[in-house]
Amino acid sequence: MFPTYFYLRVEGLYFVISMKNFCLAPWHCAGFVAAALLLNACAPNQDTPTPTTRVDVSRYLAVGDTYTSGFSAGGLTRASQEYAYPNLIARQLQGASNGASFSQPLLEAGTGAGYFSLVDFPADGFFRTRRVDGQAVRATVINPAACAGADTVRLLARSATAGTLPQNLGVPGLRLTQIEFPGLGNENLAVPGATFNPYFERLLSTGSDQTYLKSVTDATATSTFFTFFLGIDDLMPYVRAGGQCGPVPNSTLTTQLRQNAKKILDQLTAGGRPGIIARLPSFTNLPLLRAGKGLDLQARLQSKFKDDALIYIEDPIGLGRTQPITDDDYVLATTIPRVGQLTEVLVGTTTLVLPYGRDIRNPLRDADVLDKDELSRVSVVVSSYNNELDRLASEVYKLPVITPAKKQSTLDLDVALFNPVAGSISVAGVTYTAEPVRGNFFSLDYYSLTPRGNALLANTFISAFNKAYRANIPTIDANNLPTSAQ
Amino acid sequence: MRLRFLFLLPLFSGLTASAGGFDTGPQGARVLGLGGASTAYIGSIAGISVNPGLLGHLGDSLLRVSMGGMGQVRRSSFIGQDTYQRTDQDLTVQPGGYFYATHAVSHRFAVGLAVTTPYGYHTKWPETWEGRSVIQESRLNTYFVQPTVGIKLNDNFNAGLGVVYAFGKYSQRRALGQYDDPTAQAKYTSSGSGLGLNVGLYGRTGDNLSFGISYRSGVKLKMTNGKATTTGIPDRDGALYPRTGDFTTDFSLPSSLSVGVANRITKNLLVSFDFTLTGWSTQDSLRLNVSASGDAPDRRITTARRYEDALAFRVGAEYQIGPKFTALAGLRYDETPIRDEYINPEFIDANRLGLSTGFSYQFSPRLALEAGYAFDYGQLRNARADQLNEAVANISGSYRTTTHTASVGVALAF
Fold it and tell me: Distance between CA B250 and CA B301 in Å, rounded?
């Protein structure tokens, strides 16, 4: 189309310039005008940039946890895996790298491991969900004595390619502290209270004791490029339990996270393999906490119930009295629907029916709130871990700089994506916010991403890659993707 | 030549716009062929829409009529800044036309009428293009009716005054890309009218050199009958986007100040030169004030435009080839009123270089056939959207625009 058009356009100009020679009769001119109008069939040309990269991205390896696996709306399905950000990145890399391929441990099409679907979205803004059972669940193991109440582990149909490691090594719920634990993916350990990950289990051959670290090591043998986004799931159990369960964020955990990240990164960067290391975003940007930010939630509830009741929480230290919530305390999003519901509570010797959390005699329980002390413990671990990733990237692995202003060689997801989304952004006319459902970024589990959120995350990685490795990889038109993976 | 008119520059300050931007080109087949340099051109009565001062000179005892049709194709291509996706605008023809009539009522006075379609655009992007939530289609059509009076001040000087009644229709639609349904869409249509003035002077120094100066005021189209409709909204958000609503808006059409000189170089060759400042800066923002409907409160949808006044330089030549045949050619440079920061796919414009050509064939003293064609090539424009400013819907990328304008008409005398 381009050469034809160019030719015609030159002809058109030539016609104009040579008017006096050609247009000696009106009919002659009319013919030229008609020809000129035909030119309109083509729009003006522009040079489209060609996707290019200087580093070999033909064999991409993605290491990570829930986010990386494509988990969305509380579950993993084949559709959600297709929209996993590593798969979206891989698709974009293929334009610049002939023959590049990317493999994922895909579930059979259908409801996969089960997920949340939207029931309704009442005018008060507190939407309701229900859980859809997954057809890939082949057995459940219930641990009635789990810290936060009965816990269910769902064993899943094994990946069709089990035994052959996929290039997407994102495993939902994977903890850095467990990467050297033999049997993490062995069904024999699928018993109440044991350290076991059913999503890792389905990647390995039956009864394999292979550790996650060994899996990464094996997979790197054929990889030319990597992304690393791991660590959130070490802290998630603590956050989800309002600080009552899960590994306590302290200096021991920090050290473990830092050391184990290095063990994986040593493998990923071996031989100068290029890649992108992502820092962890702050938890307060996730709707799980953000939706229940103390005073904001209090104001929303006051307008919902048309009163001026405060929210009360138990004293975080457990010694003092019930106290009003502050803006540094976060009610878990999963608790929000229960706040203000009438519950029975024993006051002195009398049982009263009082609104949960909205009466000083019926405060929110510790497990329903991540208070400011608990949150600051989490933040200390996250920031120390992120600093270590930074140090490793620039000083040890000598990765190229992504953010020149800060001389950072890691990808700061907060700055590049999560903070802007929290303040709402407009992408080609579509607004994205941190609110699930209408915000189109976070999924119904208040934590993982929608397909569009995954596309924006993939774009963040691609932009970082383009900057660091001076490449031209096109980004994804996120608005073209569905708003939910189910 | 340009220096001679520098003294006029202070006059221009504070005016709003008519070159570049969404003007649809010179309003007449013959002046289109001439490249629009018609402020001091008396070869066609079409000049009275630009300079009413010409009327005193043009008006004679005959009833002269000039009328014809026009069509403009304005088309842009787009390449997404980060996505590298290329999108071409759909082909649209912006229809237009003109009707002029002049007649001298006495030795000193002449009356005239000009009906033109001076502003408008029809932007149509493919339904599923990258920027569909910014704009899918936007349309403006305007019709100017200008009764005009011309006065012969003396043998060499003429003044003219016209009153402009303008009517305009505006519509736009865009996808609501936050929903999965590809047909989710918001549409806005409205129409309205406004009044303006057009004054001008035309003079000659000797037989060969003539000059003109004119000023047309801006026109504000007040649109109070706007209808907003939405389709494809899921039930849960029905209260946020009511199916129908009313809105009001204003559309500011620019003023224009033109000066021109025409010089008969030889018996057969006339060259004319124009310099126009268009007061586009009245086009500040497009504000759609949508009134409350059902549970949805009233809201305002604003697209910042912040146009700048823009200059256009035009040169035209007319060559008499035979007793009946006249050839026309023109060259023009139109500045765009759109600043880099406010490039928006609803209407794309760029500094444009234009070439034009045309002819007039005189079948008889009372009938001439006229035709003109112009091609404009725009500079590459780069738009940068700020994602953090969620109130502004825009898309980053580069645009290239070309326009083709063609017109055919007849000039009659009774």
Answer: 13
